[in-house]
Amino acid sequence: MSSTDQPAVLRYEPNGFRVLSPGNYVLCAVSGERIPLEMLRYWSVARQEPYASAALATQRLLADA
């Protein structure tokens, strides 16, 4: 299996992310949708989770409130 057809393992940081294991996508923590790394814009540093959209990130935040 090549790195282009497997999920990446990332470390989410305040201003970006670090690739710990190569791949070309991550899975949204809310929807399970594949997010290509070049399209990844939303994540939680505290939860170490990626989100496919701002709406899904907000949904996750509100679910814990």
Order of helices and strands: EEEEEEH
The coarse silhouette is: globular
Biggest β-sheet, characterized? 2 strands, antiparallel
Estimated helix fraction: 10-25%
Strands of the biggest beta sheet: in what spatial order?
1-2
Summarize the structure.
With 65 residues, the protein is of the alpha+beta class.
Care to describe what's here?
The chain has 65 residues and is α+β, with helices and mostly antiparallel strands. The chain contains 1 helix and 6 strands, in the order ββββββα. A two-stranded antiparallel sheet has the order 1-2. Strands 3-4 form a two-stranded antiparallel sheet.
Task: Write out key terms for the chains shown.
65 residues; alpha+beta; two-stranded antiparallel ribbon; 1 helix
Task: Explain the layout of strands and helices.
Blueprint: E1 9-13, E2 16-21, E3 25-27, E4 34-36, E5 42-44, E6 49-51, H1 54-63
Antiparallel strand pairs: 1-2, 3-4, 5-6
